[in-house]
Amino acid sequence: MTNIAILGSGRVASAIATRLAASGQNFVVGIVDPEKPSDRWSGPNTEFKSTSEAIAASDIIFNATPGETSVAFLSPLQSELAGKVLVDVSNAMRRDEAGMPVGLLYPDSSVAEHLQAALPDTAVVKTLNTMLFAVMANPECLSPMATVFLSGNETSAKEHVHALLRTMGWQEEVIEDLGPIASARGPESFMHFVPHIIAKHGFAPFALSIAR
């Protein structure tokens, strides 16, 4: 069985951990200070490890850290992440002085592309970033099931992530492989909608989907 790490301990990390636990996957949660997880952790009981320990113990690593700081945070871990699959579920927005989102941090690129450039020996795969965190943990909560997108340069890495999505409850017909990592720009641009959707509807589950 593949060993999995989740980097982060907020709502997104909690949601992913909840679904992985329910599907019987082995995983560890890595954070900067294992003694001080986020007070937003709502996932299953687990032992928190340091970021480096979690990476060392795993083949597939979920980046559930804030997208605005992901590149700076993960770049120094280039050697530890070499040969691993990094599943990037983050989004990055520019924010005003009040902390409100005002646009994409990488308007002509994507978090995923910047991570791939910073981590050349790591296979970065973008997915699960076009939905509220609650949908990541429970794809069945929307009917019909939302589309989940994949972007990445390495076919074998995307195949591993594709298989993992299936074990997490995502149906084959809703998994959409967009192509190389540059295609992550499209899914990340969905963040232009997200603050307005949340302002109007709160945290009711929602996701980007393709109708055919």
TrEMBL record:
InterPro entries xrefs: NAD(P)-bd_dom_sf, P5C_Rdtase_cat_N, STEAP_metalloreductase
Presence of the UniProt keyword Oxidoreductase in the record: yes
Matches recorded under Pfam families: F420_oxidored
Annotated keywords: Oxidoreductase
GO MF: oxidoreductase activity
Domain of life according to the entry: Bacteria
Record-annotated Pyrroline-5-carboxylate reductase catalytic N-terminal domain positions: 4-91
PANTHER family xrefs: DUDULIN-RELATED (PTHR14239)
Protein name: NAD(P)-binding domain-containing protein
